[in-house]
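It would be a great kindness if you could assist me with a short task in structural biology. I am sending you one protein, given as its amino acid sequence and as whole-number tokens for its backbone shapes. I would ask you to consider whether the tokens describe a fold that such a sequence might reasonably adopt. The full record is reproduced below for your convenience.
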Amino acid sequence: MPSNVTVFEKTIVIPTYSMVPRSKLPPIFDPEVVYPYNGFLLNAKEPQDKTYKALVLENDMLRVTVLPELGGRILQIENVKNGTKYLHENDVVLPTRISMRWAFISLGIELNFPIAHSPTGISEIGYEIIDCPNGGKGIAVGEKEIMWGLNWRAEIKLFPNSNAVCLSAKCWNPTKTARDVQWWSNAAQPVGEGTEFVFPYESVIEHSEEAKTGQWPIVDGIDRRWHKNYNNMCGLFWQETKSDWFGIYHHDIDMGLLHLSDPHEMPGKKLWTFGQTGSTADWTLAMTRNGGISCEIQSGVPATQSGFINLNPNEELSFIEFWVPVDSRGELDDGKRLSFEKVVNMLGGKEALSAEKKEIESSSMKFWKNLIEAFENKDKNWLLEQQSCLDDIWPPTGLELENALKWASSVVGGLWNYSTALYLYANKKFSEAMSFFEISPKSLKVEALMAMIDWKGFNNPEAAWNRLKNIIREIPDGALLVAVNSILRELNNIEDRKAILNYWPDWDYRKREAEAEIAIDDGNPEQALHILTYKPWERHHGCRYRRTELWRKAMAMLGRNSTDIPTILGEDPFKVNEDHFGLND
């Protein structure tokens, strides 16, 4: 008799470190954050218990827990009979500084679209409970993302008498603009002396400054199957794979995880570690409260994270993948290992397993969709009722809002003028934006935004500085001061650059970075090296390298070798030449 699959909702409490935003201003002053997402600078010193909504799928083999309030991630896959947990058991939400919002958390299986670390991995997204063919149940999570307006939907499913967790996804582009996108599913795994990466014997490329290639399992003369052989951070991608599988096995605790997908639909295979030994081995401790290092195994589209899929208007990307727990190493061997095709057929075929093309509404978009509805219905009362909340929210570039916002400005004005101006600025319509800022309620924030148009829109840093020189005394905001420092650098105004440090909060690490840069530009590389060496820096991983660049520049000025990047800087020991995923295009 087939077993039943149940799905239910509950709450769970996880100690959570709250985050300090990078700025209280709209995210257009900060070159490291992409509008309309806010970014985060650091964490609170201690966690507070936080209650999360959890959705649980269960059959007689597995219990799968999903957290829609943390990007829809799969928190855990658990054996209901013996309690084995097949994902890294992190008992805390502890963000660390990884692009693009500088708030990555190592927790479960992270679902990432439209880039390799989703902007909403720490945010609430929409969900719904679904019925599946052949007695299955599922939890669909997804959103219309606020940056470009692309849709994604991931359906996490369980079926009777099956230990395969099915994840079928559909991503589509309802807009008029083509976008380069990625999907990556990122599974956090525990690490021990007996952790073995079990991957196909195919060509691989190493994620490092030098693109080292090899034939698995030997890369750069090292057997990469065993985690204990990694002496630093390292990522490996499989190139032109023909295999439908990869996995991991932990011999210390006798459990592992097998991943299956069609390599034509989902070719990406990656392993990532900060290393078992060496200078970066303890970096994952920054993501956990009670210690214990972790690694990651990842599946994705396309084959590597330096590539993209071009999603044209009205095009879609869809695939099916399985995460299958294993309790013996032999289950990963040729001849004994499940195949993607076999699991698909067992569960009813691709057509039955595929995700729907159905949008799931998230709270981040609801307000602005209501504005469009008010515009269509000419509902002035709604505009008046909602105006008070506009000062602290930012209209998303992922919706066509220009006509609705301009209507709201003409009917009510006030803060609707401000929202209209902000939206136009974000879409690089600088002259129109300036005209709406000029009729917005006067504030230092609005004046600062007008200064940004002077600088970025009209290429007039002198006018921008004239607006900002008094504002920075009243708004000691780090992101604003980063912009001011850049403006003054363009103006070759070293004395005012030194002076703005007086308004910068000492706890903001960007102050010391600016101080080091100013020392270099003032001809004092030794002073810059002293700042970089003796400041305790928080760790940043990937897509930044600000301190690394300053270190190299100061060393070059002194005629010294700067090949080796010191770990004291808290940045990767290598610099990957990437363009921040083209998000500023």
The radius of gyration is 25 Å.
